[in-house]
Design goal:
The chain is an alpha+beta fold. Helices cover about 30% and strands about 30% of the residues. It starts with a helix and ends with a strand.
Length: about 70
């Protein structure tokens, strides 16, 4: 379920990239966006951060990981 939500977020970001025309001449791997956010809905006592890396040219999710 978590990954499904992030996949939807990636698709929304894809639309933003098209508006900004960032994909115009890029190839896979030239720009990778890495983002993190605090996950509070997992009801963990400690702060838990979700990181994900996305290739700008293709919108492909490259990695997802959690850290405390």
């Amino acid at each position: 379920m978590i990954l499904k939500n992030y996949y939807q977020q990636i698709k929304r970001n894809e639309k933003q990239r098209q508006v900004l025309n960032l994909k115009k001449n890029l190839k896979f791997g030239e720009i990778v966006e890495i983002d993190a956010q605090l996950e509070t809905y997992l009801k963990n006592d400690k702060p838990l951060y979700l990181y994900h890396a996305i290739d700008v040219a293709t919108g492909t999710l490259l990695a997802v990981w959690f850290e405390e």
